[in-house]
Amino acid sequence: MASCYLPNGYWFHVSGVIPAGKDPGAVDTKLLGKYGIAVSRSTRARRKAAGLANLHYLRFGRRFVLVATHGHHAFFEDEAKSIRDARRVPVLFQGYSLSVKRGNFRRRPRPGLPAPPDGRHRVRVQIARQHYLAMKAYFLDVARRYSAEELSRQLYCVPFEPYAPVRQQMLNVLRVVNERRRGAGLAVLSPRVLRYRRRIVKPFEGGDFDAAA
Question: What residues contact residue 30 under an 8 Å CB cut-off, 6+ apart?
């Protein structure tokens, strides 16, 4: 979603959960056929040139999402009440918030200067607000009770990949934890306790994950 679909204009999304007792494979087949999703790249290119929307369908376990580009398509009529635009309402999944924002995401020319705007739409992956606030409250609660070693271990093992906005959120958590520890006369933690490199994975290999090509 973050690397392939949102960056390529698949901003309109509908999410759902397949009820227990329903066969996920049957739901896949139904939605792929209903919206004509399983087509070739050349067909997608022709549809785009003709002003028609293209769709993709992704499923993880029983959670699924349909994403679409601008254009004419029955999807926009059938799902009119449920469609959201990722530029305004993020896609929420497994504690992440995925949205599309304009500009201000280029590398800073040097520390202390703001990131220069470039006007392009870029994908922003961060920890969803509810999960972020709960995690922040947890670390504040244990900041003075746990050792520096235990806090360092838990902060490093936070189960969110360190995209740039996630790194900033984690640095904010570390800052308030250190403020609380400093006020209690305890040793503060180095920024090096956080993870800064993302694990690169192949999402379509293994696991209960499906997507329309």
Answer: none
Angle at 167 between CA 165 and CA 169, to 5 degrees: 70
**In terms of DSSP bridges, do strands 209-211 and 12-17 run parallel, antiparallel, or are they unpaired?**
unpaired
Residue 141 tokens read as: 């609660």
The Cα-based distances of 179 to 182, 187, 213 in angstroms read 5, 10, 49
Q: For residue range 15-40, list pLDDT tens digits in order.
A: 999 999 999 999 999 999 999 999 99
What are the structural domain ranges in the chain? 127-193
Structure tokens at 142: 């244990």
CA dihedral 5→9→11→14, nearest 10 degrees, is -50
Biggest distance spanned by C-alpha atoms of the chain: 67
Amino acid residing at 119: G
The model's pTM is 0.83
